[in-house]
Amino acid sequence: MAAFKTIDDLNDIAGKRVLVRVDLNVPVKDGKVTDTTRIERVAPTILELSEKGAKVILLAHFGRPKDGPSPEFSLSLVAPSVEQVLDHAVLTASDCIGEAAASAVAKMNNGDILLLENTRFHKGEEKNDPDFTKALAANGDIYVNDAFSAAHRAHSSTEGLAHHLPAYAGRTMQAELEALEKGLGNPVRPVVAIVGGAKVSTKIDLLTNLVKRVDALVIGGGMANTFIAARGTNVGKSLCEHDLADTAKQIMIEAATAGCAIVLPEDGVVAREFKAGAANEIVSIEAIPGDAMVLDVGPKSVDAVKAWIERAATLVWNGPLGAFEIEPFDAATVAAARYAAERTKAGKLTSVAGGGDTVSALNHAGVAEEFTYVSTAGGAFLEWMEGKELPGVAVLSR
Ligand SMILES: Nc1ncnc2c1ncn2[C@@H]1O[C@H](COP(=O)(O)OP(=O)(O)O)[C@@H](O)[C@H]1O
Ligand SMILES: O=C(OP(=O)(O)O)[C@H](O)COP(=O)(O)O
Question: How many Å lie between the centroid of ligand 2 and the Cα of residue 155?
Fold first, then answer.
């Protein structure tokens, strides 16, 4: 029996208003969704509830809007892709609470699917504010959380709602937890983690505990620049969070104590513009020009990453090694992903990767299907790896 209630515990839901928290935080370029994996993963829950006659009301965040509603962060950009993936009409509302939401819900027929606007357009969402949570709850009879990738956030729509409405785990939430437990519950050593990407400040703290659980931590992407700068190396105009230098140093100390190798890039591919085809050169990591930025790790670093993948029995990967969306800065991520896929196919490696952009990068490399398991979650996946309790999961527990 699952540790929490699932959709199997829901009976007679025809006509019931079911608030379903999904993660629609998908990569978008020029106003178009570039990877629909997260939508595909939540589709079974949405369609199952709709087929059972529920009024399915989708709640989601999109990006990190700072100052209330803005077109850039509107879920109306994502709605057409949701409709396409579901092959079902999707109604929309211009707000997730108040009159706009209530009147859209009142017009729903059994089986309809409605996508409410970005929950983060309200400050109350991230504060898990009880009044905001009540306003969300007013539109539902039942709450289903299918957003494992947002379950590390104790927000109104990911945690608060479970205190107001009968709460259930969706199919993806259930499947993610089961698959991670199966693949990483008792990982075969050596365990190598690759962490890269751009969300440095929200992920760097996680590394303090991760180094106690893995044998090597390979750092790439924007995360690597922060570590290299902490060591005193000039990183030019690279994406780097200089104020996290002390955290980075502390992680290196924790790693040494725990016997975890920290692997930083030896070389980088630098450019002066963040755009596809920008003029670029390979430089030693100690010689980054002051007016340039590292957009990918270099060939020597790729060899080192591959050597660590070869040594690993289990690979855990979150965050691309470079700005993979713009060629040629996808080279290291693609090479490492293909090598990990090759080792997995040969039966030498259990490979588990997670994160919205990481999934997109693996799809770009053409190997997502060949990994042992690909989670939709990045930060939540790393926190799960650390052994931390995820608020969105804990609140569903029986
Ligand atoms: N060196 C770099 N400089 C700038 N951006 C980078 C660099 N390396 C990776 N990125 C960016 O990191 C982003 C993905 O990071 P992140 O959101 O942390 O991953 P995920 O969504 O998989 O958890 C991508 O958009 C990629 O372009
Ligand atoms: O994309 C997400 O995180 P991830 O990139 O760490 O997987 C989730 O939707 C959570 O988003 P947030 O990190 O803005 O809270």
Answer: 13
Question: Do 229 and 247 meet the contact criterion of CB atoms below 8 Å apart?
Answer: no
pLDDT above 70 for 269: yes
| Site of tokens 């513009």 | 273
Question: What residues form the annotated binding site for substrate?
Answer: 23-25, 38, 61-64, 120, 153
Residue in the block written with tokens 């199997």: 8
What does the pLDDT look like over 308-339, one tens digit per residue? 999 999 999 999 999 999 999 999 999 999 99
User: Quick check: 282 and 329 in contact, CB under 8 A?
Assistant: no
Q: Do the beta carbons of residue 216 and residue 192 sit within 8 Å?
A: yes
CATH architecture of the domain 7-171 equals 3-Layer(aba) Sandwich (3.40)
> pLDDT tier at 183 (50, 70, 90 boundaries)?
confident
Distance, in Å, from the CA atom of 134 to the CA atom of 124, rounded to the nearest integer, reads 11
Mutate to test the pocket of ligand 1, among 199, 330, 374 (most ligand atoms within 8 A of CB): 199
Report helix angle 221-230 to 200-210, nearest 10: 70
Contact 207, 227 (CB under 8 A): no
Q: Write down the mean pLDDT value for the chain.
A: 96
ipTM of the prediction: 0.95
The superfamily in CATH containing domain 187-386 is Phosphoglycerate kinase, N-terminal domain (3.40.50.1260)
CA atoms within 13 A on the CB side of 199: 18
Pairwise CA distance, residues 223 & 11, whole Å: 46
Gap between the Cα atoms of 396 and 168, Å rounded: 6
d(CA 335, CA 261): 22
Give Rg (Cα) of the chain: 21
Whether residue 398 is predicted with pLDDT greater than 80 in this model: the reply is: no
What pTM, to 2 d.p., does this model score? 0.90
The answer, yes or no, to whether any atom of ligand 2 lies below 6 A from the CB of 356, is yes
Selected catalytic residue, list 199, 213, 231, 388:
199
Q: Which residue in the list 111, 356, 378, 392 is annotated as catalytic?
A: 356
- Return the amino acid letter for 278: A
Q: What's the angle, vertex CA 332, arms to CA 72 and CA 313, rounded to 5?
A: 110
User: In the chain, what are the domain boundaries?
Assistant: 7-171, 187-386
